[in-house]
Give the backbone structure.
Amino acid sequence: MHLLFGAIAVLGSTAIGSAASVPRLWTNTLGLLGVIDWHDVRSRQRTVRLLTILFPPLWAVLFLFAQEPVLMVQIGGIGSGVFLLAVVVAVWQLRSTEVDRRFRANRWLTAALVLSSAAITVLGVYTVLEVFGIGFGG
């Protein structure tokens, strides 16, 4: 019984967190790709609201169609690993084009960025490899 309660709590909080965050990520991506006007606040809000309404039922339909929760988690793991790697690339791109020179010249900030980038890259690669069953132990 305790296990069932824990599973419901974890899956419920994941669903709530995903329903709140994923539409924002997709809206940002659509803005970057030029599908929506990112600078138009109303367009951005409309897109977030629409995706917030559409995604949860879409996920439910995909589950009913696939009926493979492990496969769906694996697909999410691949997406998360790739997303982490994309974040590292984006941060370094933004650092070279958008960050004031004073901050780029600071060796401590650069070292912290290199360290965190390496950690995120390792985690992203690890996540993708784990999904494909190329684990590191256990």
About this structure: The helical segments are 2-32, 41-66, 69-98, 101-105, 107-131. Residues 2-32 form the longest helix (31 residues). The mean pLDDT is 84.
